[in-house]
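Training component of the fellowship. As part of building independent skills, the fellow (R.M.) carried out the full modelling exercise for a liganded target. The chosen ligand was magnesium ion. The inputs are recorded below so that the supervisory panel can assess the work.
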Amino acid sequence: MTPLPEGALAALARSSPVLLCLDYDGTIAEIVDDPARATPHPEAPSLLRRIAARPDRAVLAIVSGREISALRRFLGIDDGLILIGVHGLQILWPDGTREMNAGAARADLTRLRAWISANVPGDLGFRIEDKEFSIALHYRGAPAETTSRVRDAFAEFVKDNMSALTLAHGKCVVEALPRIAGKGHAMRALRRRFSGFVPVYFGDDLSDEDAFAAIGNEGFSIFVGPERRSAARYRVDSPRDVIRALSELATAIESHPCPANRA
Ligand SMILES: [Mg+2]
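Fellow's submitted model of the complex:
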């Protein structure tokens, strides 16, 4: 991966409309011990508002494993933003239209809930996040000696018994979700819908790799974090650098006259 060159996104935004996709945790919010407290970087909401205010120059989507309701609560923005939650299973379009995709996975999720209540200790620092269309096992707070046993049992049960579900591994979390889910699917759907916009995607986790791959060499796939193997072309160090890049981008977008003022 190459470090994202300074000014590259501003140059892009001056010449082309941009399809800007942002993961949430670890991208525009720092990773924190309690996922319920992952507030966005203090400058993020106002930057997102500025970018979303120019639909002629930018389409803005948040693409997260979280539920849409949580993203709305954290960001406090409702206008002009596409919210994609639970790895593409929930979509809220700016006009208020919602899409939900669970397919055949519902029966498997019901059986997995029963397995969890019988097998995951309720008091050892494990936390179950049930997002209706997917179930995540968080183990950040669990002691090392029980973590691998419980996590591996969860993963094996899903692999061996749930044909409609697949696993996504992230930072101190493993998640069972419908096979049709994935940020790559979401990214391809956005690219089809906004084909005149150049894709830019920022993400920090394994679940973002499919989205990086879906961009290929045709836009900016940007990994957030220390150097590692990734399908992304570019890299920045931290959410602070993402904010810096978004600020550049917002200013470049605003340098275009508003369509309403052109007459
Ligand atoms: Mg993330």
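The panel noted the following from the submitted structure. The radius of gyration is 19 Å. Helices lie at 8-15, 44-52, 68-75, 105-119, 144-161, 183-193, 209-215, 239-254.
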